[in-house]
């Protein structure tokens, strides 16, 4: 691939901070649930709780959209769904291709949540000739020889990579060369892309490692707390005393 490729840092989209952009899908998911229940308006506090976000942060985020709600009434759910969808570019259909139709690629292809959010899976692509033509999630798997033609014919700008790590950069290069400008990468490798191409990486093992770190911290804190607390001396009840469920605890806490 040509020189001058960079791994681009998080950018700002039309003056909206990237952190706000990252929270918009959370608001949209919560708002869509309200809309499905025909809830007409929602307060910033209610919506913040439903989205798992601090309400002051939510109000600040919505100010970037020019949405301030109505005092005493809150935000109009339907209008906010429309506004956020428009901001995220979801009022149009986005054809996507998935490359690498193994365990993960097939699972992604079978996930119904893409289509309902405006992402149409245009094609499933794999390098294994034995897979060509086989149906996965109702679509025939196409061979990588067809990759460029598929991208051009379907006007695809978003590609999902679910190949082994060793193949991911080469797949990425071909996607970009063919006109893809956004890549969702599941392969555990850092991709280099030219200016103007966005890469988002999903790595569940990294998420698990972060949880493991917190678990370890919690275990350390618990151990420190136990060491600092005087031991509880169990007191026997002398038998016959029943717990609320009728059981007979032999030992009750002090
Ligand atoms: N991000 C995550 O959280 C996460 C979770 C699971 C797996 N993964 C990663 O996803 C990738 C796929 O995992 P899997 O379990 O589905 O593997 P898999 O071996 O089941 O599938 C990989 C598929 O990629 C195809 N392939 C190989 N080279 C290719 C190329 N150059 N072009 C197109 N297709 C090609 C193979 O034929 C195969 O069908 C791996 O990199 C794995 O590490 C990521």
Automatic annotation (TrEMBL):
Provide one Gene Ontology biological process annotation. Answer: response to redox state
Q: Where is the composition biased (Low complexity)?
A: 223-236
**Compartment(s):** Cytoplasm
Q: Where is the CoA-binding domain?
A: 89-190
Instruction: Name the UniProt key words of this record, in alphabetical order.
Output: Cytoplasm, DNA-binding, NAD, Repressor, Transcription, Transcription regulation
What Pfam families has UniProt attached to this entry?
CoA_binding (PF02629), Put_DNA-bind_N (PF06971)
Residue ranges of region Disordered?
Answer: 221-254
* GO cellular component, as recorded: cytoplasm
Q: Binding of NAD(+): at which residues?
A: 100-105
Q: Which Gene3D superfamilies match?
A: NAD(P)-binding Rossmann-like Domain, Winged helix-like DNA-binding domain superfamily/Winged helix DNA-binding domain
Checking InterPro entries in the record gives: CoA-bd, NAD(P)-bd_dom_sf, Rex_actinobacterial-type, Rex_DNA-bd_C_dom, Tscrpt_rep_Rex, WH-like_DNA-bd_sf, WH_DNA-bd_sf
What GO molecular-function term can you cite, just one? DNA binding
Q: Which residues bind DNA?
A: 26-65
Chief location of this protein within or outside the cell:
cytoplasm
- Assembly with partners or alone: Homodimer.
- Function noted in UniProt: Modulates transcription in response to changes in cellular NADH/NAD(+) redox state.
Q: Which NCBIfam families match?
A: PRK05472.1-3, PRK05472.2-1, PRK05472.2-2, PRK05472.2-3, PRK05472.2-4, PRK05472.2-5
PANTHER family per the UniProt record, alphabetical:
REDOX-SENSING TRANSCRIPTIONAL REPRESSOR REX, REDOX-SENSING TRANSCRIPTIONAL REPRESSOR REX 1
Q: What protein does this entry describe?
A: Redox-sensing transcriptional repressor Rex
Name the source organism. Answer: Streptomyces netropsis
């Amino acid at each position: 691939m040509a020189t001058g490729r960079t791994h681009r840092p998080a950018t700002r989209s039309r003056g909206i901070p990237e952190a706000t952009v990252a929270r918009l899908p959370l608001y949209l998911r919560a708002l869509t649930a309200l809309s499905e229940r025909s809830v007409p308006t929602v307060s910033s506090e209610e919506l913040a709780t439903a989205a798992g976000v601090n309400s002051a942060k939510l109000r600040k985020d919505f100010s970037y959209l020019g949405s301030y709600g109505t005092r005493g009434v809150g935000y109009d759910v339907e209008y906010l769904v429309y506004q956020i969808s428009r901001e995220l570019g979801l009022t149009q259909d986005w054809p996507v291709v998935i490359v690498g139709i193994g365990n993960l690629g097939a699972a992604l292809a079978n996930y119904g949540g893409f289509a309902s959010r405006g992402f149409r899976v245009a094609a499933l692509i794999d390098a294994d000739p034995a897979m060509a033509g086989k149906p996965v999630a109702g679509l025939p798997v196409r061979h990588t020889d067809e990759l460029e033609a598929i991208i051009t014919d379907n006007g695809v700008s978003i590609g999902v990579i679910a190949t082994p790590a060793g193949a991911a950069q080469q797949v990425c290069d071909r996607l970009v060369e063919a006109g893809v400008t956004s890549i969702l990468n599941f392969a555990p490798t850092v991709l280099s892309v030219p200016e103007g191409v966005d890469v988002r990486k999903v790595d569940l093992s990294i998420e698990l490692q972060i949880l493991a770190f917190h678990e370890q911290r919690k275990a350390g804190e618990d151990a420190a707390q136990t060491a600092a607390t005087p031991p509880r001396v169990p007191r026997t009840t002398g038998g016959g005393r029943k717990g609320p469920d009728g059981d007979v605890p032999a030992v009750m806490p002090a």
